[in-house]
Amino acid sequence: MKTESYKGSEDTFKRIWNKIKELCLIKEICADELEGIGLGIPGPVYNQSIVKIAANFSWGNDFNAKKLMEEITKHKVKVENDVRLIALGEQRFGAAKGYENAIVIPIGTGIAAGIISGGKLVSGGFGAAGEFGHIVVNKEGYNCGCKLKGCLETYCSSKGIIQEAKKLLEENKTGKMYEAFKDNINSLDASDVFKYYKQEDKLAIQTVEKFSKYLAEGLGVLINILNPEIIILAGGVAKSSDIIIPLVRKYLPQYALGISIDIPITVSELLDSAGVKGAAALII
Amino acid sequence: MKTESYKGSEDTFKRIWNKIKELCLIKEICADELEGIGLGIPGPVYNQSIVKIAANFSWGNDFNAKKLMEEITKHKVKVENDVRLIALGEQRFGAAKGYENAIVIPIGTGIAAGIISGGKLVSGGFGAAGEFGHIVVNKEGYNCGCKLKGCLETYCSSKGIIQEAKKLLEENKTGKMYEAFKDNINSLDASDVFKYYKQEDKLAIQTVEKFSKYLAEGLGVLINILNPEIIILAGGVAKSSDIIIPLVRKYLPQYALGISIDIPITVSELLDSAGVKGAAALII
Lengths: 284, 284
What we know:
The structure is a homodimer of 284-residue chains.
Chain A: H1 9-26, E1 37-41, E2 45-46, E3 50-51, E4 63-64, H2 65-73, E5 77-81, H3 82-93, E6 102-106, E7 114-117, E8 120-121, H4 158-172, H5 176-181, H6 190-198, H7 202-226, E9 230-234, H8 241-251, E10 265-267, H9 274-283
Parallel strand pairs in A: 1-5, 6-9, 9-10
Antiparallel strand pairs in A: 2-3, 3-4, 6-7, 7-8
Helix pairs in contact in A: 1-2, 3-9, 4-7, 6-7, 7-8
């Protein structure tokens, strides 16, 4: 369902609760008997309760999502950052099952890292850990929405791929991808670039190579600092993991210490349900 | 005491144990009553027992330091990576006391990070977490001893400072620092560079600015990924923290997300005793 956050947090949360009750009816579960509610939300979530900064919704800083949801539902509520819940879902039920040290990296319009260290989610001092998309990889690079310059996210996200491909198309005006999109360049999607990569279009290859090299650089940073046992790519862009993973492996030896370059890199098992299952895992 | 590791691990460990017994006599402690022995060692330490890779001593891979020390001493032994013990020492008894999320960064001939997240040391899958010195910050940079190119350590270490200063001295042949070292450039030490920085020598300023900018870049990476509450600089180079910290603060806004740039950055309280106290904390 749509968040419709402009109607206010109480309205959104009440609609979520109504939807939960509706689903309980369908599943023949008595809503009163729910053990609790796990809630995923973007932004820095502190102490599984408070959204510190209003980065995505205009519900104010230090928004106590746990308290509001508990008032509305009369159930125990735990709140966590959405990316961390994806990581938790994969660790309990998916591709990271059995690993105490795993990093799950959703790549969509943005990129972030859900980090599990010693079996626990890494949240940071005020819940802002995992902002992997905003490590600076090119000091002379693109401006990022976060106000930094040359962030990983400006290359390693669907937005970044589209931006880079458009730039190359406009500069070079050649190839199959150019022919297909020259009259409607704004309809170009990241998945199109991977499609034309498979058709050996030169500009698509350049775009995907650049994406993969920067992703390898970012993974090298995570590997050297955190020494995970496994890295799991998730999100829309990970649907092209058959292309991405071999390319990342090609570039990784330039960025990760030799002892770590054989690290398994794989793809989400739970896909779109990882976050929901992670939210359930918070309560379980 | 000297490690004299070429005599073999058993010889080194026995000499350590003899030294412990000697110190017990001086302190009028009965060695039999020791609760246990905490041992710090460089390299990736797995499960507080095994040194996975023989990076610093030629005692072989998968060297079970815990087992050997327990056999020699008949006491309970816990082993940990030396940098992580420095972090643990600072957290229990020093500048990181009271913080659940702290990063301690010893800067000497190398640079690494001892990471505490949610009150626990971050060790990684096989004990290799914290290799912060080997994140690549300049793809066209210097070759590093680790076989990567442009590692943070090639700039942000006493070795890096000396290398950079020598290069500038040889290229420019000017200034107070040049006059002092032109005939014995190999005696130049990192502390000299900070000394001439204070005397406003241009080449010393350039060297220290470059060091500080790369350190800010590295800290930005740690901050964005881990959201620590405090960063503590340690090791020999941190003796010039009065110069380094303001410069790092100047550059940090280019690399750390806005919500984090006010993070406290301070200097070790325990100095050379941090590692020893961290080793004790392992047992306590």
